[in-house]
Amino acid sequence: MEQQLEDRPKEKPFVCDICGKAFQRKVQLTIHERVHTGEKPFACDLCGKAFSHKHTLTYHQRVHTGEKPFVCNDCGKGFSHKKNLSTHQHVHTGEKPFVCDICGRAFSHKHTLTGHQRAHIGEKPFVCDVCGKAFSRKKTLTSHKDVHTGEKPFVCDICGKAFKRKGQRTIHQYVHTGEKSFVCDICGKAFTHKHHLTNHQGVHTGERPFVCDICGNSYKQKADLKNHQRFHTGERPFVCYVCGKNFSNKPNLIAHQLVHSEVKRFACNICGKAFKRKGHLTIHQRVHTGEKPFVCDLCGKAFLHKNNLTTHQLVHTEIKRFVCNTCGKAFKRKGQLTVHQRVHTAAKPLFVTFVG
């Protein structure tokens, strides 16, 4: 008899008169109604941020206190929320129980699968109320909104650098600690960030799951695919605030902005010459070492710079891609075409046809 009573569905006499959802207890209905009213009675006495549930306020206050009561038994890392600990533990177990029924990709967490599936159907339900840009995940929208506010409340207590998000600060602090907790189980290489490990593992598997629907090129990382697709669309969303020049990806913008700066942080330890970019220093140091790492696989000639090797390799081919629009004569190099066109006229603009 007792078992039969336990198996009977429990009554839900408390019904929301706005959406019709029913609850077993009146307090559950009261909490639910705040979804409709927007009421947030629990306010943080440190920053004033308000919440609809008391337990959410409790979680929030740990941001101020730094309290992390939930500790991983495997690595000792602490978390402010129990669910964050549960999520973290998948790093140690490698368990990925949530599988996409479209492409077969597996995930550790259900919400990550849900976000991934929106990429297939193109759904972007989270819209920025400032600029109207839409996103497939709520956390991406939250991150995007920082672009409009410019606020950076999370400050590194070692070097003073400020960040928009706590996670960014945590990642940055690995620079100071040197901690690399994410280790590849195939080759043993260690990384500071989980996504760096994930990207690295593609080296072993050869997997390129992100495919361009225009030309069919495939990529190991979604970000690489996104950057590639801008070549098709012509999109250049990254703008230099000094000169207004546009770029298709952020690294190119950052590299360009050094043009406007007089700071030369990278100095040669042999002659003292300084450079704005580390890559320029690396190339310069070959003058001292005599290193020529770019070798022609046809004749064995070596070069300091990759672009010099690329230019040299034209010697071995009969392809002449640069054609004069006036007389039709073709050249292997653009510079040769430019010199040739002066034969026709130096007054008229020079037009180049690129074949292939």
Give a brief outline of the structure.
The chain is of the alpha+beta class and 356 residues long.
Model description:
The chain is of the alpha+beta class. The strands form twelve sheets. Strands 24-23-25 form a three-stranded antiparallel β-sheet, with helices on one face. Strands 1-2 form a two-stranded antiparallel ribbon. Among the domains are: 12-67, Classic Zinc Finger (Double Stranded RNA Binding Domain, 2-Layer Sandwich); 92-223, Classic Zinc Finger (Double Stranded RNA Binding Domain); 320-356, Double Stranded RNA Binding Domain, CATH 3.30.160. The protein has helices at residues 2-7, 26-37, 54-65, 82-93, 110-121, 138-149, 166-177, 194-205, 222-233, 250-257, 278-289, 306-312, 334-341; strands at 14-15, 22-23, 42-43, 50-51, 70-71, 78-79, 98-99, 106-107, 126-127, 134-135, 154-155, 162-163, 182-183, 190-191, 210-211, 218-219, 238-239, 246-247, 266-267, 274-275, 294-295, 302-303, 322-324, 330-331, 352-354.
Can you lay out the helices and strands and say which pair or pack?
Elements: H1 2-7, E1 14-15, E2 22-23, H2 26-37, E3 42-43, E4 50-51, H3 54-65, E5 70-71, E6 78-79, H4 82-93, E7 98-99, E8 106-107, H5 110-121, E9 126-127, E10 134-135, H6 138-149, E11 154-155, E12 162-163, H7 166-177, E13 182-183, E14 190-191, H8 194-205, E15 210-211, E16 218-219, H9 222-233, E17 238-239, E18 246-247, H10 250-257, E19 266-267, E20 274-275, H11 278-289, E21 294-295, E22 302-303, H12 306-312, E23 322-324, E24 330-331, H13 334-341, E25 352-354
Antiparallel strand pairs: 1-2, 3-4, 5-6, 7-8, 9-10, 11-12, 13-14, 15-16, 17-18, 19-20, 21-22, 23-24, 23-25
